[in-house]
Design goal:
Length: 387
C-alpha cells in the first residue's frame, strides 16, 4: 500500500484529544500544530480515520508544502506539486478553501484563483490537452498559509466529519457533533457511569456519549468524497472498514444517559435525532428545568453546553441560570461537572472556581471548558475500577 502524510484539522484547543484518538487507532503522529494533527498512514488509514474519528473535521492527503511570499511563488510552488498522481484527466478540481495566518498572501479568493491556474498549467502539459472537461469525480483542495509556509491538502472527506447524518433538526445554537465528542473525551466518563446534560437542546452531547458507549463509529453510515477515487483507494478497503465498524458495535449494554430541556419541542427533536443515530434506547430525554436537576446515585457526570447569553435579550437571564446550575450541582454529592460556555462570569455565579479551565474555539467564538472534578468512585472487590 502507498504511504501518505495525512492531515486532520480539528477545533482549536482539541489537538491533544485528536492526537490520542489517532494514536489509539494505530497511526504515528508526525506533527501537531494549532488546529491540525498530521499523521502517517496508508489507504486503510485514510478510510479508518474517516470512519472512526469522533473529533476530526476532515482528513486531507498532504500533497506538499513550500514557502511563498508572492503570488509568483505561490504559482510556481503549486505547479511543482505532483497533481497527476491524484487528479485524473477528467477530474473536477478546485481550491475549496484557503486560510492564511500571519502571511504576506492573505486574500483567499486570489490564493484560490492562482492555485487553480497553476494546477491547470501543470496538468495541461502532463496530459497534453488544452481543455479540461472536469466532468469526472470531484477533487477539492484545501490550503493553509502560516507565516508564508504553504501546506496543500486533498480533501478525502467532503462534507465535514461532524455531520454524522443523525441530526436532521437542531436547536438555536447547536454544538457540533465532533466538538461534543471531544468534550466528553476530555472527561473520565465511561459507559458504566451516569451522564446528565441539563441543557441538551437537540441532544448532541447525550447522543455522542451513547454512540461511544455502544462503540458506534461516527462515520459508518455516511459517504466520503474519496469513496469514488478508486485509483487512490479501492472500494474493498471502504467495505472492510465499515464491516470492522459493524463488528465492533454493541447495543446490548446498560447505560444511564439523560438529557433535559425546558422546551418540549427540543425534547421531541432530541428523541428523533437519537432514533436516527440508533441510540434512542440508551438515552432518557425529558422536559425538565435545570432547577429540578437531581439524581439519587453518586459519582455521576454533568456534561453540558448551557446558553451563553449571546443574544441581547438573554444576557440578563445568565446570572440566575448559572447560579441555579451551581446550586443544583452542589446538591449532587460526589459528582463531576463539565461546562462549555462563552459566558465570562460562569464561575462567579456557579459559586465555585473550576479545577481546570480549557480555552476552546467553537467556530470563531472563544469559549471556556470549566471542569469541576468530583472524587473517583471507591474500588470494589473483583470489579474493575470505574474511572
Amino acid at each position: 500500500m502507498r504511504k501518505y502524510e495525512l492531515i486532520a484539522p480539528c477545533h482549536f484547543g482539541m489537538e491533544s484529544v485528536l492526537k490520542k484518538e489517532i494514536i489509539d487507532l494505530g497511526y504515528d503522529i508526525s506533527e501537531v500544530t494549532d488546529g491540525r494533527v498530521t499523521f502517517l498512514g496508508d489507504e486503510e488509514a485514510l478510510c479508518r480515520v474517516n470512519v472512526f474519528s469522533r473529533t476530526a473535521e476532515r482528513i486531507l492527503i498532504k500533497i506538499g508544502s513550500f514557502h511563498a511570499e508572492t503570488f509568483d511563488d505561490l504559482f510556481e510552488g503549486t505547479k511543482a506539486l505532483n497533481w497527476e498522481d491524484y487528479i485524473p484527466v477528467d477530474g473536477k478540481f478546485w481550491v475549496a478553501k484557503a486560510a492564511s495566518v500571519k502571511s504576506k498572501l492573505f486574500s483567499p479568493s486570489d490564493i484560490q484563483s492562482i492555485m487553480k491556474k497553476a494546477m491547470v498549467d501543470r496538468l495541461k502539459s502532463i496530459y497534453n490537452i488544452s481543455w479540461f472537461t472536469e466532468d469526472g469525480e470531484s477533487f477539492p483542495i484545501r490550503v493553509f498559509l502560516l507565516k508564508d509556509e504553504v501546506t496543500v491538502g486533498l480533501d478525502t472527506t467532503g462534507v465535514s466529519l461532524h455531520k454524522r447524518g443523525y441530526r436532521k433538526l437542531t436547536a438555536k445554537a447547536p454544538i457540533a457533533e465532533n466538538l461534543a465528542a471531544s468534550l466528553i473525551m476530555l472527561t473520565p466518563w465511561n459507559r458504566d457511569r451516569i451522564l446528565v446534560d441539563p441543557f441538551c437542546g437537540s441532544g448532541t452531547i447525550p447522543i455522542e456519549a451513547a454512540m461511544m458507549a455502544a462503540n458506534i463509529a461516527p462515520g459508518m453510515n455516511r459517504d466520503f468524497t474519496a469513496m469514488n477515487w478508486e485509483h487512490i483507494v479501492g472500494k474493498k478497503i471502504w467495505y472492510d472498514t465499515v464491516d470492522e465498524a459493524r463488528d465492533e458495535m454493541d447495543l446490548n449494554i446498560d447505560t444511564d444517559i439523560q438529557g433535559y430541556d425546558l422546551d418540549d419541542e427540543m425534547v421531541s427533536i432530541a428523541r428523533e435525532n437519537a432514533a436516527l443515530a440508533g441510540v434512542d434506547k440508551l438515552i432518557h430525554f425529558q422536559r425538565r428545568d435545570v432547577a429540578d436537576l437531581s439524581h439519587p446515585k453518586k459519582y455521576g457526570f454533568i456534561i453540558t453546553n448551557p446558553p451563553y447569553g449571546e443574544r441581547l435579550n438573554e444576557k440578563s437571564e445568565m446570572p440566575a441560570l448559572y447560579r441555579t446550575l451551581g446550586e443544583r450541582y452542589k446538591g449532587l454529592d460526589s459528582w463531576s461537572m463539565y461546562v462549555i460556555t462563552a459566558f465570562d462570569k460562569a464561575e462567579e455565579f456557579i459559586g465555585r472556581k473550576a479545577d481546570k479551565n480549557r480555552k476552546i474555539y467553537n467556530g470563531m467564538m472563544k469559549t471556556y471548558y470549566y471542569q469541576f472534578m468530583g472524587p473517583k468512585p471507591p474500588k470494589k472487590n473483583n470489579v474493575r475500577e470505574q474511572v
